[in-house]
Write a structure and sequence with these properties.
mainly beta, single chain, six-stranded antiparallel β-sheet, 107 residues
């Protein structure tokens, strides 16, 4: 299997990560039942002049397709209208992080 990258938004619920992505690519189906890697950071805060410390986190763990409750869906915020010209259709994965690495940059 070859790694691939996809765009996703995340929230943290009960120690697990919920990812929202576009279902039109089928990435959620490819990852269902597999171990995945995910990373996030706040580096854009530095570019926008917000300041403060920067952080990044990476983790790996098993993923499964889920259907979040309405409260969880609201936590994701507004969804994109379209992806590559297609209407955005959400798909959700829950990842149980087993190996986690966090880095901070202090200014």
């Amino acid at each position: 299997a070859l790694p691939f990258l996809t765009v996703a938004r995340h929230i943290v619920c009960d120690g697990r990560i919920l990812l929202r992505m576009h279902s039109g690519f089928g990435h959620h189906e490819a990852c269902d039942g597999s171990v995945v890697a995910y990373g996030a950071d706040n580096y854009n805060d530095a570019a926008s002049g917000v300041g403060g410390d920067l952080w990044s986190v990476q983790f790996t763990g098993p993923a499964e397709i889920v259907h979040p409750c309405p409260d969880q869906e609201r936590l994701f915020g507004a969804a994109p209208v379209s992806v590559n010209g297609e209407p955005f259709a959400p798909a959700y994965l829950r990842v149980d992080p087993h190996f986690v690495t966090e880095h901070t940059l202090n200014f």
